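An instance noted here:
***
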Amino acid sequence: MGKYVLKRLGIALVTFFGITLLAYILTSMMPGSPIDFIVSSNPNITADQIAVLEEKMGLNQPVVVQYIKWLGELLQGNLGYSYRTGNPVLTEIMVKLGGTLLLVGASMVVSLIIAIPLGTLAALKPNSVFDYISSGLAFIGNSTPGFFAGMIFIYFFCVRTNLFPMGGMYTSPSDKSVGDLLYHMVLPCFALALQQIGGYMRHVRSNMLETMGEDYIRTSKAKGLGRTRVVIAHGLRNAMVPIVTIVGMNIPLLIGGSVVTETVFSWPGIGMLMTTSINARDYPVIMGVTVIVATAVLIGNILIDFIYCIVDPRVKYS
């Protein structure tokens, strides 16, 4: 177990540095620069002042040198300061991180709560009307882009019926109740969960169909165990083993999808922060968000590996 943990941590570290290096290079290749954003808001700035700013920000140095200096600061726990606001990057991220974690976590829970029962029922009644309908809905949900689902939700549930708010996290900054938060979270949560629901349903159905045909399931039925116990205790538990891996693999997609969803619904999270920072060419914030997201994904994937041991006792690590 110890060797496996060290090996996984080593792979995660190499992956992390690769992600940050690639992100830094791609960020520096974007059209425009932070100086252009500053000049657009202050057209009277002189060429000498621009040169001083470039030197102060380190933008006059090669990209590799900039990355090495940034990495050195990162290893000391310093993510730098925002070019746009002047605030510490870590402070900017921590203010927005809670909103993203709440939205991503809620959408993951909602997608699993809906997908697992529907996928299980579809597998228990193959080729039935319910199976065809659920498979069709799963296909539609899985193929619908998040931004399109968000716009459809806004049109029908906000513009036409006025059932839900169009965006934001609270109606008023002075009234931050849990009920108001949940009310605002309904549409972005389901818009983000829609694609996940379709994918999970298809996987649960196919895994359950395979599992329910195994010999140990027939043996359990022959022993006189109730249908509910056979399905849940023996069938569903074993069918969920591959789903654990799929959930782990979907974490990056879920976080990436939150960027679009937060933008559509004006949800104050790191997705909105990332969009604003990209428009302003705010390199430190872009890299700070990349670090947080990459760390969360890598840690999540490592935890998924160990959850395997809980779901399937046959899995051993050495």
Remarks:
- The chain has a mean pLDDT of 83.
- The longest helix spans residues 227-264.
- The chain has twelve helices and no strands.
